[in-house]
Specification:
Elements (H helix, E strand, L loop, with lengths): L9 H51 L21 H14 L6 E7 L8 E8 L8 E8 L1
Helix pairs in contact: 1-2
Length: 141
């Protein structure tokens, strides 16, 4: 009488290998998407910090009221007082650290019912995107 043969057949091994390969490809895709999301979050965090930094600079230097109005794209030498030009130059240098980074600042004068308003925009290009992403901060001074 022949003893029963134990073990795995070649077909069983190949099926297990296919299942394992599909699982590993899923993990690799998940990892890639995680890296992409982290990069996007980093750019957005930088944009928020840059806009808040410029708003703080504006609050610290209010004379004249429209000193930081530099249009789109922002040009640091576009009028203002000496401190405003220094702040804009430093800010624009920081904004260009983002991929395709540009900055714009628009000023709206106060009315009897509203305060002076600056609209600060930071734009950058995400990898794989055709259009720039823009973060906008409205600062009432």
């Amino acid at each position: 009488m022949r003893p029963s043969i134990r073990g795995f057949t070649l077909v069983e091994v190949l099926v297990a290998l296919v299942v394992l390969t599909i699982g590993m490809l899923g993990i690799a895709a998940l990892y890639l998407e995680s890296v992409r999301a982290n990069r996007t979050a980093l750019y957005r965090t930088d944009a928020v910090n840059l806009a808040a930094d410029m708003a703080d600079r504006m609050r610290a230097n209010r004379d004249p009221a429209d000193a930081y109005d530099c249009g789109e794209p922002c040009l640091a030498a576009n009028g203002g007082n000496g401190q405003a030009v220094t702040d804009l130059t430093a800010w624009l240098a920081a904004v260009t650290q983002l991929p395709g980074g540009t900055g714009a600042i628009a000023y709206t004068a106060a009315t009897p019912t509203t305060p002076d308003v600056y609209t600060i925009q930071v734009s950058w290009t995400e990898v794989g995107q055709d259009q720039a992403v823009t973060y906008e901060l409205r600062a009432e001074l």
